[in-house]
């Protein structure tokens, strides 16, 4: 079984310091949270950026500043910017981080009702457009799927030549408007992708650690972080992203899965050859 890749989603675009005071806003806070997660065992930092007041932004310059600060602390970590951005952003606004020399980025593979009047829009043409830009720039897409229909769309676009091998999926479960994060949901998605694909699982809220353990047991990979879940256990706030990563490392030890370094992660995800091509 491959070593376990841990991705840490350190901030997201929605949670605030009122939810958990360790949510990073400033460049310094972002770099420190990334560094602590890296020291704990994360080889990929899933990156959203904020303005200093906490408002989400996809500004390319802000991403560049954050990435440089992270690389000063952990030069070999894989930085995976979000192209999800925040509800209401345009395609090109969301794609700004792809103008930077990055190895990997997220690609959201379907539309969701986020609650109330909020709709996270990802049309088929949006997905084709994002996939085309990433392919042209040699950026590995992490295919974020929130329900089974998203996987079906990816496989159809793969067959038509819009999405390319090797494919790496991320099952994001427990999001409002998407699938819940029960074991049956995980198994349904896992059994719906080709056997030669890799996958990671991100459980939202209370689903984070049960799904992490399932992914570990079934040979998949894990995403945790304050974007997805602000608690270490019921009612106990995580004292930073490192707490969440450390808990996954303990689960991995329980099931005899070793933790992948950034270099090993690049090999597992077939992005090893890109490392020297993309430097800030």
Q: What features would you describe in this structure?
A:
It is a single chain. The protein has helices spanning 27-40, 60-73, 91-94, 124-136, 148-159, 183-190, 208-217, 241-254, 262-268; strands at residues 6-9, 44-47, 49-50, 56-57, 78-81, 104-108, 112-115, 118-120, 140-145, 168-173, 198-203, 221-224, 231-233, 236-237. The protein is α/β, with parallel strands linked by helices and 280 residues long. It has one domain (6-277): Aldolase class I (TIM Barrel, Alpha-Beta Barrel). The strands form 4 sheets. The protein has an 8-stranded parallel sheet with strand order 5-2-1-12-11-10-9-6, sandwiched between helices. A two-stranded antiparallel ribbon has the order 3-4. Strand 10, helix 6 (183-190) and strand 11 (198-203) form a beta-alpha-beta unit. The longest helix is centred in the N-terminal third of the chain and has 14 residues, at 27-40. The model is unreliable at 274-280 (pLDDT under 50).
